[in-house]
Amino acid sequence: KMAEISQMIDSEVFLAFATYATIVILKMMFMAPLTGYFRMTRKAFANPEDVSLRSKIEDEKKKMLRTDPDVERVRRCHQNDLENIVPFVVIGLLYALTGPDLYSAVLHFRVFVGSRFFHTIAYLTPLPQPSRGLSWMVGMGVTFSMAYRVLSTGLYL
Amino acid sequence: KMAEISQMIDSEVFLAFATYATIVILKMMFMAPLTGYFRMTRKAFANPEDVSLRSKIEDEKKKMLRTDPDVERVRRCHQNDLENIVPFVVIGLLYALTGPDLYSAVLHFRVFVGSRFFHTIAYLTPLPQPSRGLSWMVGMGVTFSMAYRVLSTGLYL
Amino acid sequence: KMAEISQMIDSEVFLAFATYATIVILKMMFMAPLTGYFRMTRKAFANPEDVSLRSKIEDEKKKMLRTDPDVERVRRCHQNDLENIVPFVVIGLLYALTGPDLYSAVLHFRVFVGSRFFHTIAYLTPLPQPSRGLSWMVGMGVTFSMAYRVLSTGLYL
C-alpha cells in the first residue's frame, strides 16, 4: 500500500518529480508571452484597452480588435497544455508518493516532458499530422500509466 | 493547527484523496478523446494540417475547417471540468492534510466526484436545466466546504 | 538539497502556502458565478437548454444564444486565472517544500495573491493599460522566482 509516504517525499523520485514538473510548467507558462508576441506582431487584440496603447485613431483601433490564425494557434496549444500538463502534475505527484523505483519514475517524467516539448513544436511549426497527434498520445499514455500505478497501489473507495 | 501533517500523509484519508482525485482527473482527460471523436464524426476541425490527413481536395478541406455545435459542447464541458476539478484537487489535497475524520473526508470526495460525473452526463445528453446547474453547484459546495476547513484549521496570513 | 521535506510540510511556510493557495483558488472560482451573473443580466447564453428556462418563445430563445462582450471579458479573465494560478499552486507547493525562510516565502505568496486580485479588478473595470499587463507580469515574476529556487535547490534530471 501507500504506506511510508512521508519517507517517499524525501526521495530522489520526489526530487525528480519536482524538477520535471517545474520544467514542464515553465514551458506551459512560456505560451503566454508567446501569445503576446503574436498579438503584437499580428496586431490582433481581444480588449479595447489593449489597442488604445498602440494607436489613437479610432479606425485603426477597431481593426486591431480581431482574431488572427497564428494567435489562435498559440492559444489552442496553450489550452492543450493546460488540459494535459495539469493531469500529469496531479497524478505525477500521487505517483511519486507510491514509491516507484527511480528508473521507471524518471523514465515516465522524461517521456512526458519530451512529448510535450515536441507537441509544442509540432503545433507551432506546424509539422504535418500525425506528429502532433502522436506526441499528444504519448503524453496521455504516460499519465495513464502513472494513474494505473496510483490506483493499483492504494485504491480506497 | 495543521501540525503532524507528515503523519496525515500516510493516512487512509490521503489514500482516499489519491483515489478520488485520480478518478476525477481521468474523467476529465476522457473529454479530450471525446472531442476528437466528435471532430471526426462531425468533420469539424481547427487546424489545416488536421484536415490534410482526411482529404486531398482543397474544397473539401476548407469545409472541414469549421466549428460544430456538438464539438463546442464537449469543449465547454471540458473547460468546465478544468475550472472545477483543478480547485477540487488543490483544496482537496490541503484539506486531506488537515486531518479530517475519514467519514467526512470520503463523503466530500464521493459527492464531488459523483457531481462531476453527473454534470458531464447532464451537459452531453443534454438533460433539461437546472440539472446541469445543480450538479455544478453541488461540486462548488463541496470545494467551498473543504476550503472552509483548510482556512479555519491553519490560517496563516 | 530538498532533504527533510517531510519536516518542512509541518512548517509555518507550508501553513502560509495552504492559506494563500486556498484564497487565490477561491478568487478564481468566484469567476464562475460572476460569468453566470453576466450571462443572466446580459441575456447571453451558450446552450439551448439554458435559455429554455428563461423563455418559451422560440424567437426570444434564439436571440439569447449569443456572445456578449462583458461575458467574454469575464471568461478571458477566468482563463487568465487558470493559466497563471495553476502554475503558482504547483510551483508554490514545491517551493514550500524546499525550506525557504518564512519571510521570503510569505512575501512571495502575498505579492502573487495581491497581483492576481489587482489583475481581476484591472480586467473587469477595465483600468487603462498597462495596469493589467503589469499585474500579470508581477505574478509571473513571483512564480519564476519560486521555480528558480526549486530548480536550484534540488535539480534531478
Automatic annotation (TrEMBL), chains A, B, C:
Domain of life: Eukaryota
InterPro entries named among the record's database cross-references: MAPEG-like_dom_sf, Membr-assoc_MAPEG, MGST1-like
Xref: SUPFAM superfamilies: MAPEG domain-like (SSF161084)
EC number: 2.5.1.18
Catalyzed reactions: RX + glutathione = an S-substituted glutathione + a halide anion + H(+)
Molecular function via GO: glutathione transferase activity
GO cellular component: endoplasmic reticulum membrane; mitochondrial outer membrane; mitochondrion
Location(s), subcellular: Endoplasmic reticulum membrane; Mitochondrion outer membrane
Regions crossing the membrane: 13-34, 85-113, 133-151
Keywords noted in UniProt: Acetylation, Endoplasmic reticulum, Membrane, Mitochondrion, Mitochondrion outer membrane, Transferase, Transmembrane, Transmembrane helix
Topological relation to the membrane, as annotated: Multi-pass membrane protein
Function: Conjugation of reduced glutathione to a wide number of exogenous and endogenous hydrophobic electrophiles.
Subunit structure as annotated in this protein's UniProt entry: Homotrimer; The trimer binds only one molecule of glutathione.
Family, as annotated: Belongs to the MAPEG family.
Name of the featured protein: Microsomal glutathione S-transferase 1
